[in-house]
User: Fold these one by one.
Assistant:
Number 1:
Amino acid sequence: MSRVAVVGGGLAGVAAAQALLRAGEEVDLYERGGLIGVDWSLLPYLLYSGQGAPEGPSLQVPAAQELPRRPEARLLLGHSVMEVRRSGNGYLLRHSSRGAMGEAFYERVIIATGARPRQRAEQRRHLYRADVPEHVAEFVREREGFARVAVRGDSPPSLAAALGLRERGLDVLYIGARPLLRGHADAALAPLLEEACRAGGLRVLTPRLSFRVLGKGRVEAVQVDAEVVPCDCVLEFPSYLPETQPLEGLDLRLGPFGITVSEAMEAGPGLWAAGRCICLEDGTRSLYSPSFSYITGHIAGLRAAGLRLAAPSLEPVEAWRLGMLELAFAGSRPKGPPLARKFLTIRPSLGEGGVRGVALLKGGLVKRVELLGRGALAWARWCSPLISRGISYEELALCEWGHVPYESSLPLLSASLSPGRP
């Protein structure tokens, strides 16, 4: 029986390896870092929580701690896969480790290379990158010495971190796009997000022409267009690109949203892909959802093992804590023209368990719901299977919303979505 290569040791790679091992396969897992199965989506929470500095093992999902004990799994830590190319009836992997180059042939390969930041980290004292564990650890150690913090980003984690730091009593400036969370949330949700920012005492600025960090050797202020705002430190949340560089020599459907794969995660003959580096044929993708990475990795492992089991729902659920509220998404944005939009009001007030949001429709069916309020995560989880089965807005509006139990705000929403065992 030939071994299966899994390229990437994130959540998708670990899920794929776990599924392969349970199917009786032998696995080689390539990971360029020193840890596998680390849920980096937890890092933004550590910026404002009462917990201490992050440690890699504490961020690992349970499956990652089990894999090293499996004799059928060979963990190749510190091995960076430079190129994957077609060779005969399989694939040749060129990899490097500590400057030494090597090659290995596999008939079956799963790609789970994740995503990489668009920007390089700038070296300046008190300028922190939220995706770099060392930067997060340093910020947590020095957090009590800061009074004014600038947070820059356009993603849900960046807004979650800004409101969390504001809750701790810091003077926070959020530098983001308009409408808020553009590209992540529907524009119709922006007024509700701005309302949540005002209620949380968060100031928001949008650069129209330029953004600069000012100070000699350390952060002293930020300049947003012509306005200069003093601050003690800057937290940057970079945007991401799917990591597909090792695959550029293959005849695959590569685009700005990653590797296009089928619902079975197939990218080519004997080749599967999963996690943050993929985009399904219907446009489903997610750079931030741990559950999406884990589910797609699990499916890729099952299919690579030759199993034709029914695939679980691919309607990802994401949730982020925004101060006292929760921002939750269920479903995905399909490709094609802009979706029709209908508003949802479960309870009119955003406080006391109220939830408001939008439903995005295509062909008369609800494809995605975006909700904000206390208990939004519970409603999103409730909507997800309905979206999977196919439900119209009229049917959704007729549902007895009141019977869904209220779920109090979780201390760490992204952790609650990090699966243990499939």
Number 2:
Amino acid sequence: MKTNNYTLRFFSLLLLLVAGILLGSTTQSTAQISSVTVTVNDPSSITLPTAPTTAASPASFCTGSSTTLSVTGGRLGSGTPAAQWVWYADACPTGAATPVGTGASISVSPTNTGNAPITKTYYVRAEGGFCNYTTPCVPVTVTINPTPTVTAPANQVFCAGAVTTAIPLSGTPTGVTYSISGGASIGLANASGVTQIPSFTPINATSAPVTATISLTPTANGCTGTAVTFTITVNPTATVVATADITRCAGATVPAINFTSATTGGTVTYSWTNDNPSVGIAASGTTSSIPSFTAANSACTDAVANIVVTPIYTNGGQTCNGTPDTFVVRVHPTPNATLAAANAELCQGTAVQLTYTATCGTGPFNVEIRQDGTTPFQTYTGVTSGSNITITPTPTSQGSHTYDLMKITDANGCTNPVTP
């Protein structure tokens, strides 16, 4: 009986111990370490973001410039934190991506290194916000125009007064036009919106070449490129120092006729023509002088030759004809005449009269007559054609007497026989 009591007490104590252990393991402490409050809203009370419309200002611009991208309409929704507009370039990302900007408007400066306009598309969407809602991307496309270019033409050399041909210009992009400046002093007017250097008449009033630096500025799609330059040289109109008219008697020696020019900065040569080679000068030549010649005239009137000398100026690979000079070479004929006795028979002591008839030359004449082959000759001045010359001395002896016309000098100073 005693043993049973002890056993009952043992199991009672064991049950109390187990119950105490179990009770202690299920009881939590009420002391807080940290706390947070979460509010769960009714979805119908939250405004979600919606997609906007987009614009770019300007929508087309020059490389190196900027444009403003902006949204209108749409909404970022309600709640805190708010959503924001996020911009991307070239594609709407499906995952994590680096945006080009955030906000209702951003400024971007895309570039174009090519030679034709290009387009670039940006995308915007609302991201984040209270419910971390993302709207569909909305695109906006801009056009980036390249910097126009122009290729400088080769330097040009023209002749003053000679109308030029147009000079074509090349550049990019398609449709590029050009502004021209710097050529007013040589006759090339400033111009804009052209595609070539227009034809013009170069001017140069000096005696040396003048050079102008021409500037070409390309423009296309509202964009202005870098100007390039080239030069236009205008050669002067060459001149030749005027040659005085030349008058000589037939048979006279004429010294060389030399040509000179005051034009500088290049090479001057000459081309000359003669419309009457019978005077003793060739019909044409390209020398800087007409060689010495013997004046010729086989007729009984003056021989006249018109000599035209054209200076030719060469510089920079361009040859330009200058202003011609004309001078006259006049050759008087050799005087000639006949003598006839006014009376073939005379009484002794009567003066002899000889009739002088000029066949060439310009009177009055000075003549020298030889009597009976003796010297000195007798000189008679102021003789006119058809007049009678009274011979002195009067012959005293009977018989035939001979009178020879030995020399004629006419009013032009020309003689027969010829004096070189």
Number 3:
Amino acid sequence: MGTPLSDLLLPLYHIARVNTIYKNAGGQRKTKWISLGLSEKGNKRKAESELARLRAEFEPPKEVGDLSSDMLFADYLLEWLEIAKGRLAHATYGAYQGLLKSTIVPYFRKKKLTLRELEARHLQMFYSEMLRRVTPNTVIHYHAVIHSALKYAVKTDMLIQNVADKVDRPRKNSFQPVFLSAEEMQKMFEALRGTKLELPVLVAAFYGLRRGEVVGLKWDAIDFEQGTISVKRTVTSTIIDGKYQEFEQQSAKTKSSLRTLPLIGSFREYFMQVKEAQELNKQVCGNCYNYEYDGFVFVDELGERMRVEYLTNAFPKFLESHGLRRMRFHDLRHSCASLLLANGVPLKHIQEWLGHSDFTTTANIYAHLDYKSKITSAQAMETGLALPEGGDFSSRWSSISAGENSRFSPLKTENRAGFAL
């Protein structure tokens, strides 16, 4: 426990902010400035009143590593996240931070449960309440964060068991992606002609690239002499501390995502035009050109790299405004796979084209679209298993003579009152 603020907070303040001085658990003096939101003239009394309130309410913040099973579970979650930050990918850290600060921490702070007091029933109640507000998939994300945090508590001997293991996760809600036909693709390409979205969409639709792989494409990944395009880096986006950030990774999503694909004639021409345009933009803009993203394929006239979120947000809006079927940018990847299947490409080859790490991923998503393989299977069964000729599956009533059948005709039946029905 730190020394109470009432003993250490010095009346060193400007009108606009207060300088709080306290000792942490290790006895070290710490300083924190707290803004009062007051102008510097005519507010001395208000500042003194605010100082008195802060003295009464202030609690020294806990520092990373200062963990115990007696601390509030809500506080533990935030401290754990800072400890885990070094091993988490930027996007994962941003996602975890968003889930914790927006929902999980506020909920459990109201419950005032310590880490030691947390039980499976508390988590189950939390999930049940959240399911009335959000989708099962979101609750599964909540569970993943909480489970990871409690796993660390067990690992560091603050807890003897992970109570999240005892909780029933909700069943994942199914999501059906949009699959465009070749005709719909052509109609979309026509609408996109000459726009900023045209080439990114063409690349995603033909090669099945993820949005981060599209934005992360650099000229060193395109070999015009060998006629290849390599997927070897990605750009991810996230929000950390309320600020939108993008991070370039020198590797794709997984090892299998690193792949080299053929650069067909049309794309060779597209990319050559873009490369020439970039060189001209550098000459025209001079010092105004942003060389920070030099080497990336998708930059604007001033050298600014295309944002990942631009593809996420602008693409579906464009489709809707042009009367086309609304879909996510990632659905272009799904449409690519469905068209490959429709043209007889085996699932194993599609796995390699898309860069899936596991064949089961490809099969689980796209196997239901592989109708041609079902026809082949049916023909194989018909060849290998002879079925009886003809067959007698007609109604048994057909064997009864018309005269006999008339006795049972519903139109001749009388009810109990003697009336013909």
